[in-house]
Design brief:
Layout: H1 10-17, H2 21-29, H3 36-49, H4 55-62, E1 67-72, H5 79-93, E2 97-102, H6 107-117, E3 123-125, H7 132-140, E4 145-148, E5 158-162, H8 164-177, E6 183-187, H9 193-209, E7 218-220, H10 227-237, E8 244-247, H11 250-262, E9 272-274, E10 291-293, H12 296-312, E11 320-323, E12 326-328
Parallel strand pairs: 1-2, 1-3, 3-4, 4-5, 5-11, 6-7, 6-8, 8-9
Antiparallel strand pairs: 10-12
Helix pairs in contact: 1-2, 1-3, 5-12, 6-7, 8-9, 10-11
Length: 338
């Protein structure tokens, strides 16, 4: 086709198919009330002519942009790209484009403007506590919202989470069952509900078993590049170290492993280490980390489905979906006591 030729409109498609422009719009939007034969006739002309609808014009007519937003934080944490990969796959299956905002890099202001402009039809957030201003702005304009991997109580929205507290309890019971009663816990910022819940679950089992977490074996720090590695070095160099260390997530655990190795402390011979999340690299042979595996693909798929439900107007009452995580035993602990 000559690139200077007139671009076809939906009205042109309607004339060629011998139907109304409204029928063409229903076919292209997946609407109901169109006979199968008519639908196929319209789509055949669309394919023949290489027609591409003007999505922005459609958005103005339907009040939908076919675009959803995903707000992420700490994108260097490998679990974030894993969630993002499945979300974009699911939205693509429903012909939805995805715009990603990294709210760690002054992205929240841009996201708030997008929320107010109608650029997106819905929003998935992965770090609710750090995106609360944008979430409240979205709630104020009635935008569909789903929070994944974070619980939130200040905004009415769908939530997709895993069994963080219960799974951390399982980790504690596993370690105690294996004879490890002098335990440590290393965590990141407690304003992350996932990290706070994991610590609470771990502590609860230790307290009940009569082996409360000692202050000298507890370390909590913001996510700085070398902070947890240094703590691993300090613990590994000490004569009075815990028998095992549980960590708020896999990235913390990997840094702890790095610090222990740097001072010649052997894992699991000298100390055990357990992570949480089940990121892909935790299973690499060189890391071989015992961890709690979150069903990230299932969680992301459910988050996408919940958002699409809201966008379609199928419901308005918020839902909470909780997915069970699984303790995966690897080489950073032993297989006894399973």
């Amino acid at each position: 086709m000559n690139r200077f030729s007139k671009k076809l409109s939906s009205t042109d498609i309607a004339k060629l198919a011998g139907v109304s422009q409204a029928t063409v719009s229903r076919v292209l939007s997946g609407g109901s009330g169109v006979k199968p034969a008519t639908r196929e006739k319209v789509m055949e002309i669309v394919r023949q002519k290489g027609y591409r609808p003007n999505v922005f014009a459609q958005g103005m007519r339907t009040n939908h942009s076919a675009t959803v937003g995903v707000a992420v934080s700490r994108i260097t944490n490998p679990i974030v790209p894993e969630i993002l990969e499945e979300l974009t796959r699911q939205f693509a299956l429903h012909d939805r484009r995805v715009i990603v905002w990294n709210t760690d890099e002054q992205g929240e202001e841009s996201l708030i403007r997008a929320v107010g402009s109608g650029l997106i039809d819905g929003l998935v957030c992965t770090a609710a506590s750090h995106q609360i201003t944008a979430l409240q702005a979205a709630q104020n304009v009635g935008l569909p919202i789903v929070s994944i991997n974070r619980a939130i109580d200040r905004v009415q929205c769908d939530q997709v989470v895993s069994t963080n507290e219960e799974s951390a309890q399982e980790v504690a019971r596993y370690l105690i069952r294996c004879g490890k009663t002098r335990l440590g816990f290393v965590n990141g910022p407690l304003d992350r509900t996932t990290l706070a819940d994991r610590e609470a679950g771990f502590r609860a089992v230790l307290d009940h078993a009569g082996h409360p977490l000692e202050d000298k074996f507890y370390y909590q720090q913001d996510f700085h590049k070398q902070a947890f590695r240094q703590f691993g070095m300090d613990i590994g160099s000490s004569d009075a170290r815990p028998q095992a260390i549980a960590c708020g997530n896999d990235l913390i655990a990997i840094q702890i492993l790095n610090g222990l190795k740097a001072v010649g402390c052997r894992v699991p011979e000298d100390i055990w280490v357990v992570g949480f999340d089940g990121i892909e690299m935790s299973g690499w042979d060189i890391i071989d980390l015992t961890t709690v595996q979150q069903p990230v693909d299932l969680m992301a798929k459910e988050a996408a489905n919940l958002l699409l439900e809201q966008i379609s107007g199928a419901r308005t009452k918020p839902k909470v979906r909780r997915f069970r995580s699984e303790l995966v035993i690897r080489g950073s602990t032993d297989n006894i006591g399973r």
